[in-house]
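Input sequence (191 aa), recorded before submission:
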Amino acid sequence: MPAPHDGVPNNFQKQTQHVKKSKGKQPQATSTIVFTPAQVAAIEARIDLLVHLGYTVIALNQTVEKKIDPKTHVNILHTLLPQLKKRIGVVFLKRLTIHIDEDSEKGFGLTSANASIADAYDLIALAPTTAATFSAACLTHSQPSPLTAHIIALPLTQPRLPFHLKHTLVRTAIKNGAVFEINYAAMRVSA
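Predicted structure, token format:
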């Protein structure tokens, strides 16, 4: 599976328009994501390489920092997937990765009120950065539910892991069906 930011360019264009709501409520922003032909071509080239290497399931990732805000959240994968060419025998999955830290540990958006946002994704991953968020990811958010975190991403690209991997937490998450992801892309050395 490609690294979290692979496949989705950071410099996509975002167009915002305001939609007026009735009875004096403030306008709510809706966004349309537009990928340039060059960006789509770069993603297509990466996908072609993965298919050539034998991958048949490819997860395209969208990363959210701290929490999902239903007022501002835009599913960029919803507009990207129709622009990609169809490939026989290849399945595309939509993945949402939420980076959670001490500011977001009390509520980062995986609530029943935001279930419709989470339903648009095939995989949900949490990337904890503190001991408290790691504990919450393992104990609370790995339990089977419509908002289950399928993947717990460990930030091993930092010089030191910011929390201890307690056996009881890891065992509970695995027992609940979660898997752990080790992202080593940043550790690669360019030649």
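Checked by second reader. Helices lie at 37-52, 76-80, 115-119, 131-139, 167-175.
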